[in-house]
């Protein structure tokens, strides 16, 4: 490796010839960053689980779905919201959430270079699916008639974003990560994102069944009413 190549590679990201002149190495460890993410997510999950248990009318799976939406609200609004606001200054910033994104970028360097797709996708996610996720929790707690419509809209948006996320990187030949790395590729890039395919798919099917049942009931009621007349 010549001197210019060595200078270009003074960062942990792929491809190795990526130029990030403003990059400053994290002073927080991986364990600190992941510990924060999973601890706060765990608090949202636990609090939501406890609150939903007070209603007495929600089953286990419905309560777990609400926990999912609460955690999504936190991740979309706070974590992804931070990226949406500060993506341009991310490489040199040492704020905790910026360091979180620099750590995650070891699995997908598109974030540390403010790739157009990731900025647009995360901005939409932060502005729409974050607030909508909290709204979904509220709608189920208060038994709003539109609750499954919200579930369907949010889950479709999450699924669409995740499919585009993987597909655009696939078309790039997985150039923005160390392909096959057990942590950076399989855990950061694959596992932490495939959740937004598997769980939304299950929630879409659930909303489909609930809304279809409601429409069937409405149609049946109308038919019976017309027969009486």
From TrEMBL:
Gene Ontology molecular-function annotations: C-8 sterol isomerase activity; cholestenol delta-isomerase activity; steroid Delta-isomerase activity
Tagged with keyword Lipid metabolism: yes
GO biological process: cholesterol biosynthetic process
Superkingdom of origin: Eukaryota
Annotated TM spans: 33-52, 64-85, 123-141, 148-168, 183-204
Membrane disposition: Multi-pass membrane protein
Localization per Swiss-Prot or TrEMBL: Membrane
Segments forming domain EXPERA: 61-204
Keywords per UniProt: Isomerase, Lipid biosynthesis, Lipid metabolism, Membrane, Steroid biosynthesis, Steroid metabolism, Sterol biosynthesis, Sterol metabolism, Transmembrane, Transmembrane helix
Gene Ontology CC: one annotated term: endoplasmic reticulum
Pfam families documented for this protein: EBP (PF05241)
Name under which the protein is recorded: EBP cholestenol delta-isomerase
Organism: Kryptolebias marmoratus (Mangrove killifish)
